[in-house]
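In response to the reviewer comment on reproducibility (Comment 2.3), we provide here a single inverse folding case reported in full, input and output, so that an independent group could reproduce the run without further information from us. The structure tokens appear first.
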């Protein structure tokens, strides 16, 4: 059995062409056909009478877990996970640092055909020192031995391949491929990342660069295959 993972910054469903079209994100999610998808920049618009995240879940047949970082009177904003696996536990983690944009992580445990799979999905800050603090907190979430497989994925906003946050993550999980996902039309930066422990379980990491994905958001999705 293989498990397909993906991380996708949907940019509030505003495409590289500046148009707001949730249906394009739905189609890209269908192309991915992933078992677990980490979403970033989920703006809780009303779409056909439904909250955006509920709309994406209904259109894909996946179960949604919300992890908003900004709570507003009308529309929340933040992270989310879509999954077809049974959910065993959910932990919402605040990674916000004083004076900076609210950031967080979704830490969920899934039943992967009898194996416990911990998935932590996140979207880190824009400043290097901010990301260093946030990665320290993320690594505390992984209690090796409490699950069979551990996954960290999301938009890390880490531009520097030699930066300390990536070095710490590589040391913890072992090195994972860096693939350019941003900007979607001409990707040159590996902002979206995916790690798995044990590393031998990670069979493939690739960018999903379909014609639709190149315009649906300003990021391309990153996809990984786990051998269970």
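Designed residues, in position order:
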């Amino acid at each position: 059995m293989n498990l397909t993972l993906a991380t996708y910054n949907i940019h509030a469903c505003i495409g590289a062409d500046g148009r707001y079209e949730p249906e394009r994100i739905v189609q890209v999610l269908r192309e991915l056909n992933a078992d677990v998808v980490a979403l970033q920049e989920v703006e809780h618009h009303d779409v056909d009478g439904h909250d955006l995240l509920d709309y994406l879940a209904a259109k894909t047949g996946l179960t949604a877990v919300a992890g908003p970082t900004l709570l507003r009177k009308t529309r929340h904003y933040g992270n989310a996970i879509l999954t077809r696996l049974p959910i065993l536990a959910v932990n919402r983690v605040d990674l916000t640092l004083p004076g900076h944009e609210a950031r967080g992580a979704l830490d969920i445990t899934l039943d992967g055909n009898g194996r416990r799979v911990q998935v932590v999905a996140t979207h880190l800050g824009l400043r290097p020192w901010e990301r260093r603090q946030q990665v320290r907190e993320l690594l505390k979430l992984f209690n090796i031995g409490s699950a069979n497989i551990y996954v960290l994925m999301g938009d890390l906003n880490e531009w520097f391949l030699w930066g300390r946050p990536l070095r710490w993550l590589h040391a913890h999980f072992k090195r994972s491929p860096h693939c350019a996902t941003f900007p979607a039309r001409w990707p040159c930066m590996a902002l979206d990342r995916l790690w798995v422990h044990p590393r031998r379980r990670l069979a493939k990491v690739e960018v999903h660069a379909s014609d639709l994905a190149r315009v649906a958001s300003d990021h391309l999705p990153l996809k990984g295959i786990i051998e269970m």
